[in-house]
Amino acid sequence: MEWIKWLGEHFIGMFQAGGETFMGLVTGIVPTLVVLLTFTYAMMKFVGEERVTRIIQFAAKYTILRYTLMPILSLLMLTNPMAYTFGRFLPEKQKPAFYDSAVSFVHPVTGLFPYANAGELFVYLGIANGIQELGLPIADLAVRYFIVGIVVILVRGIVTEIITKYLAKKDGTDLV
Asked: Which Pfam families is this protein grouped with (predicted)?
C-alpha cells in the first residue's frame, strides 16, 4: 500500500511542478514576448506593408541578402511557422534554399527575439540557465547565437541552392 501513496504524491507533484513552471513563464517571459510582438507589428504598420514588400523583393534578388536578410526579417515579422511564406517572393528554384535558411534560423533568433519562435524558447532557456550558473552573461550568448546563426543560414542557403540546381539538372526538371 505504501507504493500507492508514493505514486499519488509523485503523480500530483509532477503537475504541481508544471504549474509552478507555467506561473513563472506567465509572470516572467510571456509579458516580454507580448510586448516584443506588439512592437514588431507596430513597426510593420508604421513602415507600411508595401514598403516591407519592396524591401523583401529587393533582398530576393541578391544571394547574400536572400539567405540572410530575408530569413531574419521573415522570422522577426511573421514568426515561426508563418516566416516561410516569404518564399512567395522567390522563383521555385530558390524556395528550398530559402526554407532551409529560415528553418535553420529559428533557434539562433530566440535569444534576442524570443517571440519569433516560442517553441525553441525552452531549448534556449535551458542553455542560458547553464551559462548563468557558470556566472557568465547570457546577453553574450544571445548575440553569439545570432551572429553564428547568420553565417550558418547563409552557408546553408547557398549550398541548398547549388544542390537544388544540380538535382533539377540531373532530373531534367526546369525550375523557373
From this structure: EII-GUT (PF03608)
What is the distance in angstroms between the CA of the first residue and the CA of the last residue of the chain? 70
Q: Would you place residue 29 in the very low, low, confident or very high pLDDT band (cuts 50, 70, 90)?
A: low
* Torsions phi, psi for 148 (to 5 deg): -65, -35
Residue appearing with cell numbers 556566472: 135
Distant-in-sequence, close-in-space partners of 101: CB < 8 Å, separation ≥ 6: 66, 67, 68, 70, 71, 153, 154, 156, 157, 160
Helix (H) or strand (E) holding 163: helix 138-171
pTM for this structure? 0.69
CA distance 62 to 56: 11
101 alpha carbon, distance to own chain's centre: 10
Is the pLDDT assigned to residue 136 strictly greater than 80? yes
Over residues 79-98, mean pLDDT: 86
Domain boundaries, the chain: 48-171
- List the Cα angle 66/67/70 in 5-degree steps: 60
